[in-house]
Amino acid sequence: MSLNAEWRNFLLNENLDDKTIFTYIQGLQEIISNLKPRTVSEKRRIQIASQHLKEVRRYARRMLNENMDLQEKLNLLEEGKED
After folding, report:
1. Contact 35, 46 (CB under 8 A)
2. Residues whose CB falls within 8 Å of the CB of residue 27, separated by 6 or more in sequence, listed in order
3. Cα(82)–Cα(48) distance, rounded to whole angstroms?
4. Which CB contacts under 8 angstroms, 24+ apart, belong to 61-64?
5. For the chain, what is the largest distance between any 2 Cα atoms, rounded to a whole number of angstroms?
6. pTM
7. At what angle do helices 21-34 and 3-13 cross, to 10 degrees?
8. What is the mean pLDDT of residues 1-17?
9. Is the per-residue pLDDT at 15 higher than 70?
């Protein structure tokens, strides 16, 4: 069974609640790490893809933190409104 088929099965068999953006990023990182470049240009493309994934992970963490902060502020505002 190929890595792509395993990844597809994972995505289809898992509950949507268990999936996060980090699950997708991890899967993509595994796929990229298992690629075997045959040319120098393919090697560069894989390196660029890997760097882009690191940036995506960084931005996803940042968005998650901002989302949590906004959720806390919303909860505080709702509690203040109830009083």
Report:
1. yes
2. 7, 10, 11
3. 51
4. none
5. 66
6. 0.68
7. 170
8. 67
9. no
Q: Which residue has the higher pLDDT, 42 or 20?
A: 42
Distinct helix (H) and strand (E) counts, the chain? 3, 0
Condensed to tens digits (0 to 9), the pLDDT of residues 67-81 reads 999 999 999 999 888
The token duo for 14 is 């898992």
Pick left, alpha or beta for residue 36 (phi over 0 → left; psi -120 to 50 → alpha; otherwise beta): beta
Q: Which amino acid is present at 7?
A: W
DSSP characters over 61-80: HHHHHHHHHHHHHHHHHHHH
pLDDT at 18 over 70: no
Query: Cα–Cα distance between 75 and 50 in angstroms, integer?
Result: 37
* Confidence at residue 10, expressed as pLDDT on a 0 to 100 scale: 67
Say how many residues make up the chain.
83
